[in-house]
Hints:
Ubiquitin-like (UB roll), globular, 28% helix, 6-stranded mixed beta sheet, 3 domains, binds FE2/S2 (inorganic) cluster, alpha/beta, Nucleotidyltransferase, domain 5
Amino acid sequence: xxxxxxxxxxxxxxxxxxxxxxxxxxxxxxxxxxxxxxxxxxxxxxxxxxxxxxxxxxxxxxxxxxxxxxxxxxxxxxxxxxxxxxxxxxxxxxxxxxxxxxxxxxxxxxxxxxxxxxxxxxxxxxxxxxxxxxxxxxxxxxxxxxxxxxxxxxxxxxxxxxxxxxxxxxxxxxxxxxxxxxxxxxxxxxxxxxxxxxxxxxxxxxxxxxxxxxxxxxxxxxxxxxxxxxxxxxxxxxxxxxxxxxxxxxxxxxxxxxxxxxxxxxxxxxxxxxxxxxxxxxxxxxxxxxxxxxxxxxxxxxxxxxxxxxxxxxxxxxxxxxxxxxxxxxxxxxxxxxxxxxxxxxxxxxxxxxxxxxxxxxxxxxxxxxxxxxxxxxxxxxxxxxxxxxxxxxxxxxxxxxxxxxxxxxxxxxxxxxxxxxxxxxxxxxxxxxxxxxxxxxxxxxxxxxxxxxxxxxxxxxxxxxxxxxxxxxxxxxxxxxxxxxxxxxxxxxxxxxxxxxxxxxx
Length: 507
Ligand code: FES
């Protein structure tokens, strides 16, 4: 059996026995180590790079079979800024009973320790979802469960939540055994995995979940809290509009917003809700991975070295904002959207999305157009080899067309026009960071939404906290469930038409 030594940040973190024929990625998973693997090991994203000591080569962990003893340098672990995770709490004693409000995102997990009687947040703990090693989006995770069962992913999220709960208790000086209630909001797949249900039925038509939740489960020893504690899961509408959306709508108090309102959460999926009267029309689009930087040549998560914002002016040219004030290594979602908006606004891409040659354009931006290994590129930083290729633009174009087409389809179903909408709420981590003007420029949503657009942050966790402390809030969630109309975009004639129409850019 070959021995693999794993190093991170210059330190030996694990010496492992590998099974002949397995990949480095297989061993990383088996050892519960962390690596970014957005495509779940299918060899498509090129993001699972590790360095081999033997020859100094950088290789894709999922495509490299262990042959003999090896020393592998893993990349730094991802430190992600998590919206809403740094809220200051109060550790000055509590009445109890305590509760924990949890937001399980596909990317990040946040737990708020709360004193239920006083509704006071005592402490917050958060981290990158430990299941991310198994793929960045829910489809990769479902695929893993279909091939291997869901037990590993269930174990990972439960262990992570237990750790976050203990961490929050430590920060607040609280006894975990005083925790009597846990309120969880996540998408339907994340809630299934936390509850120990298989999500596999949601990966194939007719996309059947085991449960739509909205109910309470005994803790049954899965978390280190009071033995008689109860876990509440926010209700899900269907497989692809889950408890994160219903909890987020509760936190946004959407019920009391007058007039038609669009609520949108772009994570690894794009979930859309249109409220008209007391009806909620909803749909989901598989739009997210591109906006998360997955499967984009220089795409990366919103971590140090990621270009998070791009601005263009005639006198200064391109101005980049890089997370952590570091040299740029790639672009995260908000940076990708800004860069594309600059290209659209300056004409560097035409309305079909074609990246022009420098000679075709009489504009200052043309100095950022060039070729790299024979392929047309848009240079963000030639010095640091950060660029976008036509394939990236295409993927972003398809993603934005899916969201924009989804919005138009919901408007059609509700029988209203886009100009009738008078509130536009952008929820979720990505919604908090994207530049609304850039999003409108690329046509992610109609330009007439712009004056009504409001970013509302990670509302799923806030909704889970409301449900934690108030039976009334839980009743509001339960009542909401009769008001949804699910719009299936798969076979929808209007969506198919709109999707094609929305692929175009308006220069
Ligand atoms: S290429 Fe290895 S995880 Fe995507």
